[in-house]
Structures are given as C-alpha cells and as structure tokens.
Design goal:
Layout: E1 7-10, H1 11-15, E2 21-26, E3 29-33, E4 38-44, E5 49-57, H2 61-68, H3 72-78
Antiparallel strand pairs: 1-5, 2-3, 3-4, 4-5
Length: 91
Amino acid sequence: MDRVKGKVMSKAAFLDNNVPYTKEPYEGILISADKNNQYKIAVQLSEDEVLVVDQVSDREVHDRMREWVPRVNEIQVQYGVHNDLENYSQS
C-alpha cells in the first residue's frame, strides 16, 4: 500500500482562509472551497491537523469524495493516527 501524499497543515488554516464554503460531509473528511470554485479535500489526522489530499473543480468534487471517503481509515493509519474521532470537537 503506497503512502498517500499531501500537505499536512493545521485544521484552523485549512478552514480559516476566508473561504466561502467549508464542510465536514463525512467523519474524518473536510472540504473547503475558494472563490474560483476549486475544492480542497482533506483527511483529519488529529483534532488540530489535516492532510490535504486533493484539489478539484466544483464539477468533480462529488466523484472525488466517493473515492476518498473509503480511504480515510487507511490514510489515518499511514500517518500514525491512533484515534477515536468521536472524541474530537466539531467545528
């Protein structure tokens, strides 16, 4: 299994870049959109850290979400997450 590559960043930075849209559609996945209809998809690694795994257009976001959701646990294990996401605060 190849390690998923992406940019690790703080959850606050991912969600707080003056983006018009942010959402957590599934546990462990975060999405943010910019003014140019580009969506960033991230996997939550901890309460305060995410891994940005993809950036897609508004036309592709639903298809890509279906690809990433089943991989959340795999990615978290690859990054050494020993988690119980139910304990994380919701923002």
